[in-house]
Specification:
Elements (H helix, E strand, L loop, with lengths): L9 H5 L7 H15 L8 E8 L5 E8 L7 E7 L13 H11 L2 E5 L12 H15 L1 H4 L1 E11 L1 H15 L8 E4 L11 H5 L14 H6 L25 E8 L3 H13 L4 E10 L8 H17 L11
Parallel strand pairs: 3-4, 3-5, 5-6, 6-7, 7-8
Antiparallel strand pairs: 1-2, 2-4
Amino acid sequence: MRFNIFPGYENHLMSYFRGDTDELKKRRQAQGAAMMSYEKPEGMTIENKTIKGGDGQDMTIRIYTPAGLPAKAPMIVEIHGGGFVAGNLDIDNGRCIALATKVGAIVIGVDYRLSNKEQHFPQPLMDCHAAYIWAHEHADEIGGDSERIGLHGSSAGGTLCAGLALYLRDHNELTPALTVANCATYYTAIEETYSFQQMIDVKMGPDNKALGAEVTFLGGYNGELPSYYAFPGLCHDLGGLGAHFIIAAEYDTLRDGSFQYAERLLKNGVPVEVFMGGRVGHCFTAAPHPYTDLTHDVIAMAFKREFGMLDGLKKNV
């Protein structure tokens, strides 16, 4: 397939191309440096805090608090990507700062346990759940509103967000005001989609599924369907969830799964909106760019709507 890359996203998309040429290495290095760059706004505080994770172990969260927030500000629990086996809080500093400032919210990044031979699902999910419950129970300590909490995650983080939303529903816990899943994986059989076949040049992971991140995340295959908390598209009933915002990218092998999940949410009466980035690749909002800023503006508007921050737009009739 021929890629007509959105100007300015060349390093980002080409960092996913399969191969090990000098050109691709340079693209990956440039994208990695861009993803790690950020500027802290004046007056914002960024604080690491140690809380108890899903198994009672020490876990780090990172709290981003913009200057001048009103009392009881809304909160967003943000879950980084990395294919379940990589990534850290640092790769999402820029994204968390953008969400915090554009929404006017406290953002809480989660340093959940990455998957390997010793630890895997459900441990990462339960760490994210622990952070969400901590935010709900300790909101007063950080100036947040315990009843207004949203979720945002990219790639594996988006999958964990969608799985956490289902877990919270099933256990009758506080419904997220909005769950934003950015280029998430919802299904295990992604090879069956048109987008996977069309975008084979930017396929992530090895050809052998038994060596990939999916099996590492699951802790191995046992011939049974995985939990739908691990891959939300496997859930038989999506009814009763709170509002969702699904982000897809045109040049992403995971694109069609996002549309399939969004359609199922709509059929179950779940409030949903879908944003597809044109001529960009998987998790394009990791690249500093005006289009990334625009996407974050749209996400921020959705959070503000669900947090009840747009009442000033109402017109008298």
